[in-house]
C-alpha cells in the first residue's frame, strides 16, 4: 500500500457519475423546461427506469428505495410508469432507443406480468428495433424462473447481480443474508435463458470485513465468471440514511483498512484474469468495456463505466435523473409526489442543472481523467485554462 495516498483516501469526494454533481442541481430546472429539452432531442436515446421498492432494506443501502410487503404500492407504481412512458413519447420525436437500464431498488420485485407490461409499453410508444443493450439489476434472493423467462422475452441481454459480500458474518452484519448458492443459481438461470452478459456488484468498507474475507468473496464470485464486476466503497451516512444505524459502527474498518480491502479485492480479481477498468470496475479482457478502455473510448455515466456514452439518457420513475445535451433533470424522489405529477399529466421534474460551455469543458476533462487517468489539456484550452487547479 502506498502510504502517501492515505491522506487522499480520507477525503470526501464525489464519484463523478455526472458533472456538475447532483448536490449542485437547482429547482429552476422544472417540468416545463424538461419538456422543452425533450422536444429539442433528435438523436438516439437511452432509457433508465428506476424501481423504488425492495422486499426488505439492506442496512448499508444509500439508494432511493423503500421496503414494501403489500402489492398495492407496486401496482400503483407500474400504472404511473406506463403513464410516464406515454408522456415522454408525446414530448419528443427522438424515438430510437439504443439502450435500456432498469435500476432500483429492486427491479425484479416486479411480477413477470408487470415487467412485461412496462417493456411492452416502451415497445409500443418508442422504437426499440435498434436496441443494443437491455440491462436489469437483480436481487438473487427474489429471482424466479418465471421472472427470468419474462426478462428474456423482453429482450434483456445483460443482468447485474447484487452480491456485495459472501461472508456469513458480514451478511448478518448488513442485513442481507445471501449464500453463495443463491448467486450461483441466479447466474445459472440467467445463462440458461440466454442472458449471458452478467455483472456482479461487490462492496468494501462493510462491518466485519477483513482482507482475507473480501479476498475470498472476490475469488468465489470470480469462479462464476461474470463478464464484469463493479466494486463500490460503502458510504456511512447514518444521519442521511437512518437504516445504517442498524449496523455495528464499531465494526466498520478505518481509512487505511478500507484502502487495504479495496486492494485485496483488486488483487483477487486481476489475479483471476479480470482487467481493472477506471477506478471501480473490472472486466474480462474481451468484454466491451475492457476493449473501450484499451482503445480510449471508455465513458462514464450514472450506471458507472460504459463502452459508449449516450448523449441523451431519459430517466423514468421516482428520483430518476435524465442526462440530456442541455443538462440534467431529476424527478421527484418521493414516490407519492412523482405519481401525483404523472397522473396530473405533467413531468415530475423537481430539480436539475442547465449546462454552460464551461460545465461541459470541465465535465469532459474529469471524465477523461476518470476513464484514462490522463488528459490532453490542449483539447480543452490548454493548461492555462486550469491554472488554479494545477497549483
Short recap of the structure:
This protein has 391 residues and is α/β, with parallel strands linked by helices. The protein has helices at 6-9, 31-40, 72-91, 112-125, 145-153, 168-174, 180-192, 211-222, 255-271, 288-295, 335-343, 357-372, 387-390; strands spanning 45-51, 53-54, 66-67, 97-104, 133-138, 158-164, 197-204, 228-233, 275-277, 281-283, 299-301, 304-306, 313-316, 321-324, 327-331, 349-354. The chain folds into 2 domains: 16-355, pyruvate-formate lyase- activating enzyme (Alpha-Beta Horseshoe), CATH 3.80.30; 356-391.
* Structural class by helix and strand composition: alpha/beta
Q: Strand-residue fraction?
A: 15-25%
- What is the CATH domain class of the largest domain? Alpha Beta
**Total helical elements:** 13
